[in-house]
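Please check these two lines:
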Amino acid sequence: MRLSADVSPKFPVAEFTEQQPWAARSVFFLLGAATMLSFAPFGLFLLALVCVIPLLYAFRHCAPKIAARIGFAWGAGLFLAGTYWLYVSIHVFGEAPLILAILLMIGLVIIMGLYYAAAGWIIATLRNDSQWYFIALVSAVWVFLEWLRGWFLSGFPWMTLGYSQIDTSLAGFAPLLGVFGVSLMLMLSVSAALAAAESTGRTRIAMVVVTLLPWLAGAALKSVDWTTETGRSVTTTIVQGGVSQDLKWEREQFGKTLDLYRTSLLEHGDSDLVLWPEVAIPAVLDQVENYVMQLQRDVAVGNSTLLFGILERDAQRSRVFNSVVAIDGRTRQFYRKRHLVPFGEYFPVPDFVREWMRLMNLPYSDISSGEAYQELITLPDGNRLAVAICYEDAYAAEQRYALADANILINVSNDGWFGDSIAPHQHLEIARMRALEAGRHVVRATNNGVSAFIGPDGGIIESGPQFEYLAMTRDVMPRTGATPYATVGNWPVVLFSSLILGWLAWRRRRFAG
């Protein structure tokens, strides 16, 4: 079979990218930026298809070097538009110098853009004239690189295309294959649609079938209930403090915050479970022991359990953790955040840079990470809770060890760092995917929104407004059983992608030789 790494002049896109390189890159940058609209809060999921098809067309018909440049432009557009809120968290609320915030944001955009540059170069290098070959190549490369950027160098799985399909039939694959499986089915459909447009006769019919098949199969899978309800419902109250991020750590706000949260507990003392956000109490645990002992007495009266976020100090080793503490009137249980935020909770910089940060009165000390595997929090009725703090819930594979034993998933966060941006809505979308993958309810409490009860189907049962105090109470049904994804994780998708890539590379080398 003839390999086609060279560009034929019959394809206008190749001529355009060669003759007008900067104009071409600008077009693809804008297409990448527009893809952001397929994610929350906009939810224009069809744009994930519309904006990816031109990119794949370029990968199919441009030289590898040009395909890489186009891929970089598309990826840079996606992440600049989709994660601009990093500037808000770093500069506006983190009070880092403007130039530092801009450099960190641009650095992330460049790194993320390189993944899509790699996708363009690999696809353009390995492609040939076969439509089937192209579909397999695109699907494998795209999903493998999405998975790779989800863990490499701490990882940043934001803007994985599968999240944009949370409200489509493709979401039916999430309990089976996880979010990367949803991405895989999306890319299978998109690449087949492009192949159908470039085919004739029976091949076109076959490509149309492949385009539609993931959507039809996903719709059928959505009717499968992978887990079952067990026991009685847990009456649960979410408390969203609504304390502005710029006031949260002010001395004059501290007493008001303590009063606000304790009042919320007393008002909902008949709930089985009360959940406060990440670092709801802006202090280290040993600094507020008297307050916590009072909370212990409060929950003992109502036979309820309180989960609250706070910093916790390990005095023996002088470490500080971002923790969730569970109290039930008798005992204390802890969950310590494991996956920390670079440049937010720890600073991967040399000592001389850390010293400069100290001299500039910038945050420079690190939060310590908790153990990789931790005991689940157990309620008095025996139900077990798996906790994720902040953006830990974006790392699905890291939570998988707890899913089989957990009856309810808990997420606490402080999305107040991102102001009135799209980030809290994107984060809620990620939490919805975790619920769907595990077949469990997710109870999500944030400082300033978006707090929500999420069903095991990924649907939002109830959510509250942002930037104000609220308390929501719902009966949450514990569930048992394991979805296929909870059992095997990302490995089927990763193994499939790796085998396809290995086979295609071997095949190309064999025919080229």
